[in-house]
Write a structure and sequence with these properties.
Layout: H1 6-9, E1 12-16, H2 21-32, E2 36-41, H3 44-58, E3 62-66, H4 74-81, E4 87-92, H5 107-135, E5 139-143, H6 156-176, E6 182-187, H7 194-197, H8 212-224, E7 229-231, H9 234-242, H10 245-260
Parallel strand pairs: 1-2, 1-4, 2-3, 4-5, 5-6, 6-7
Helix pairs in contact: 2-3, 2-8, 4-5, 5-6
The protein binds NADP nicotinamide-adenine-dinucleotide phosphate.
Amino acid sequence: MPTLSPHREGSWALVTGASSGIGRAHARILAQRGFDIIAVGRDHDRLAETVAELKQAHGVDATALRIDLAEPDAAEQLIASIEGVEVGVFIATAGKGSPGLFTAVALADYLECVNVKVRNNLVLLHHFAGAMRVRRAGAILVVSSTGGLQGVPALSNNSATEAYLLAMSEALHHELAPFGVRVTGLLPGPTRTPGMLAMVAEEDVPRGTMTPDEVAKEGIAALEAGRRTHIAGRANRTLLRALPRTARIGLFRRMVAGSFARDASMPAA
Ligand SMILES: NC(=O)c1ccc[n+]([C@@H]2O[C@H](COP(=O)([O-])OP(=O)(O)OC[C@H]3O[C@@H](n4cnc5c(N)ncnc54)[C@H](OP(=O)(O)O)[C@@H]3O)[C@@H](O)[C@H]2O)c1
């Protein structure tokens, strides 16, 4: 499979969640490949910093788009604001965790997560997959999670939305392949990002936690190789492939309890 190229896919890469962590790391690699970047997030300063870094380090064009994807009509706003721009690569990364017992977390948090991960990704995927299909060019990386392979106690809504993204990327992979459009679902395991460190104390970060750069390197490689899905990290792949679903639920339950147990609303393993 050919490497991603602005000449074949289209010159702009749209990255949601580009202001931090895994999304930012993907934006850096795409800028290295020569793509101009539309960086989507909410934090003005971090977006400005990302865009300045990409321009300076890689000589590409980069623009920040401040949009709260937790708003119900955010995807339509995003699409309208870049009308006429040919998006060659779409990386769907935006998201945050809401750990806690299902009934202890505010319903509003869960509904926001559904807007970010499900509702607005659905609208964005429908739009950009449609345009890429017509052009017979483009590539889409959907960032799900190893948590999406099974239900994760105390990350119930997160794991359910990641499962939605996993199923969606698997289906789109097959639908769009005949049109020359690559779609890959990326499943990171624990990754040391600002998002993770906002939820987990340093001493509770699980062993084997990857860096965002390592995850993004594998994500882009998987997309370029035309893979349907890819679990980031050899250790994660080996472990998760070996375990049946019930054992994986137990593993994630222990991992989540070990990382968040200091919070009184979390179950002990
Ligand atoms: N870290 C892990 O261990 C891990 C493992 C598996 C999967 N993941 C998934 O990977 C993705 C990235 O997570 P990360 O760990 O890199 O977290 P992160 O460092 O907190 O980055 C999250 C990114 O998503 C953006 N975002 C969050 N909510 C948003 C909203 N309502 N509207 C617009 N942008 C929003 C953030 O932008 P602003 O801050 O600018 O709003 C930020 O750019 C998430 O979807 C997460 O579920 C992470």
